[in-house]
Amino acid sequence: MEYIYSGVSNRIFRSEIREILKWTRKPGVISFGGGLPDPSLFPVEEIAEITGKVLKEKGYLALQYGPTAGEPEMLEALLGHMDEFGDKATREQLSITSSSQQGLDLLALLFIDEGSPIVMESPSYLGGIQAFARAGADMHPIPLLDDGMDLDRLKEVLKDLDAQGRKPRFIYVIPDYQNPSGITMTLEHRKRLIALAHEHGVLLVEDSPYRELSFTGEMLPSLWTLAGGKGVIMLKTFSKVLFPGMRMGWMVAEEPVIEKIILLKQSVDLCTPSFTQLILAEYIKRGRMKHSIERSIECYGPKLEAMLAALEKHMPADVTWSVPRGGMFIWLTLPERIDTKEIFMTVIEHNVAYVIGRPFHCDHSGGNTLRLNYSFPSIEKIDTGIERLASAIKEIL
Amino acid sequence: MEYIYSGVSNRIFRSEIREILKWTRKPGVISFGGGLPDPSLFPVEEIAEITGKVLKEKGYLALQYGPTAGEPEMLEALLGHMDEFGDKATREQLSITSSSQQGLDLLALLFIDEGSPIVMESPSYLGGIQAFARAGADMHPIPLLDDGMDLDRLKEVLKDLDAQGRKPRFIYVIPDYQNPSGITMTLEHRKRLIALAHEHGVLLVEDSPYRELSFTGEMLPSLWTLAGGKGVIMLKTFSKVLFPGMRMGWMVAEEPVIEKIILLKQSVDLCTPSFTQLILAEYIKRGRMKHSIERSIECYGPKLEAMLAALEKHMPADVTWSVPRGGMFIWLTLPERIDTKEIFMTVIEHNVAYVIGRPFHCDHSGGNTLRLNYSFPSIEKIDTGIERLASAIKEIL
Asked: Could you report the predicted ipTM of this complex, rounded to two decimals?
C-alpha cells in the first residue's frame, strides 16, 4: 500500500547531528556534543518529596485533564519566577508549552505559510530551523557578530524584502548565550534591534533558554521587557536552568497572540500535563528555582573557564572561538579549508566528539565551524577532551 | 503593531463546546459534559511510590532529555500491554506521543495538505476534526450506523473521489465505544471496512482510546490486528483507561510511517517527558494496568446501566439514544426541530448540562443531537441529572 504524504513530509529531514551523535557513545569517547545539563544538579530528592505531596493533596487534579493555557497555580508561579529575573507579564500573556520546542512549533503553525520570509541569526538553534523549515519558511540568515546579529545586514534584508512587497513574519533571535555560538547581544544592540523591528513593523521572537545562566552576575534585560511587551514573543523553558525531563516551558506574548496560541494548542496536544505542572509550581513557589540556578552557575562557570583555558593552551593559532559569559556552548571556527563533518571520523579516532556547525546555518554554510558543550562533561574530561581535539586538529592541519 | 498570521490561523476556531462548558461550573449543575475519567480511580498512592523509586534509582535519566520515539523501557512496556489485549507490534512500529491528540496532530502534519480529502465517521471526535480542519482537510463525513460507518455510502464517496482523480489521505474511525456516539463497529463491519480500504489503497486511521473499557467481557480485535498491521495506523492513550494528567499516548504504524513520525516529532516537541514515561513503564511492568482497567470497568459499567435505566424511565418517546457496551458516552437524538445549542440555556436552568452534538459533525449537521458522559458523575447524580434533563426536554417539546 502506498501512503500519500503531505508537502510537510518533504520538509522534514534527518538531522546530520543526530546521525553522528551515535558515534559519541563509542566507549572511551569524551563528548562535547548534545546540550545536556549536568544530571548531578537534578534535585531528585526534593522532586520526589514534592510529587508525594502533590499527589496526596491534589491527585484528583494532578492526574486529570487541565486547562490548555496551563494550571492557574503554575501560571501564577511562572509570573513570580519571571518577576525575580526582571520580567513582568500578566496571566493572560502566558501559555504553558511542552518545553520551548513546542513554542517554536506553535509559532511555525501560527505565523508561517509556505514561502513566508523570516529572518534569523546565522548560526541559529537547530530546533528552530527544523520547525520553520517544516512550515516552508523562506529563511533569511543574518551573520551573527560578537555583539548580536549584523544590524546593517538586517537593514538591507528588510529593505530588499520591502522592495518585493514582502515583510518577514518575524525575526528569530536568541539574545543570551546563544545556541550554538555562546554569543550575547549587548544592551545597545538589543535597543537598536527593537527600534529597527518596530520601525518596520516586524515581530521579534526571543528564544530565551539560557538567560538566567549568567556566570558574571550581569544579566541584560530581555527584549520582552525592553520593548514593553510590544511586538515581542518570548519563549522560555526549564530544560537548561533546571532539567529537561518534564518538557516544561512557556510562551509570553501579547494577549491576542496568546489567545490564538491556546486555540491552536487545543488541536496540537489539548493540554500540557497537570501532573508535572503542579510539581514544578510547588518547586517554584518554595523559592527553589533561584537556588537551582545558582547551583547550575556554580557548576558551569568553572567548566567554561576550564574549557577556555584548555583551548588557549592546546589549540593551534588558526583556530578561533567565542568567549561566552554564560550558557552551555563555545563555538569554534577552523580554517576555511576544513570541513568539520569530513574530519569528524578522524577526530572520533582520538576519542573526542563535537557537534558539526553546518546544520545550525539555514543556508548550509559554516562547514568549518563546530560547537562544544561544557555543561555535561566533568572538568577533568574537558581538559583531556580539548587536548585530544587540539591534537586531532593539528594532525589534520 | 500588526501581526501577519498564517493560513492555519484562519482554520483554528473556538470550540462552541468549550464556550458552553463554562456554564457547567454553575453551582448546583450536574454535568454530563466533558469526557473525564472518575478521579476516585486514580492510583495516586502507587504513582507516588513509583515516582519515588524512579527518581531514586534513575533520576539522572528521568529528568534528562530522552529519545524522540520514547524511552526503550516504556516502549517495551507498551508492547507487553498491547499483547495483553491481543495486539502485536515491534518496537520499530511504535512512537510515544503526548496523548493521542498529539498523534492526531502528527497525522494531520504528515498526511494532509490544504484541500486533501479525508473520510470520517459522522459524528466523530472533536479533537480529530480540529486537527484535520487546521491542516485544511476536505472532510467527507460518512453517517455512522449502529454497526459502524455506512459502508455503502463510503463506497460511493470513494468512487466519486476516484472519478475526480482524488484519493482520501486516510479514513478516520473510532471502532470501539466511539466518541461521541458510544457505537462499536461489529467484527463483520471491521473486516468489510478493511477489505474496502485495501481495495482502494486507502490508509485507515484507528483511534482507539476506549477499546479496553468493555463492560461485557467481549472485546473485538483492533483494525490493526485484523489487517495484519498493513495500511493501518493506530492511536492509543492512557487518558481514558488510567488517567489523562500525564498526557501519555502512543502510535502504532508500519515502520516507514513511524520513521517519518519521529523525524516530525523532533520539530514538534523533541521528546515526550522521560519522567512520566519511566513512571508509567514501571506501573505497566508491575502488571497494574489490567487491574486499573478492571476497576474502571467495575466503576463505569453500573454508571452506564444507571444512565440507560434513567433515560428509559424519564425520557419522552420521541427522544432516542445509543446503547453502548463500554466507553464513556451515550448519544441522544432529539426531534429534528430541536436545536440542542438553542435549548442549552433553558436546560442549564434545570441545573443539568450536556455537550451539544453539532461540533462533532464536520459538515455542521446534527443540531438535534447531544452527548452524555457517565464516567465522571456519581450514580446518584446520574439519576437526578437525567430526570432533570428529561423534564427540561419535555417542557421544551
From this structure: 0.96
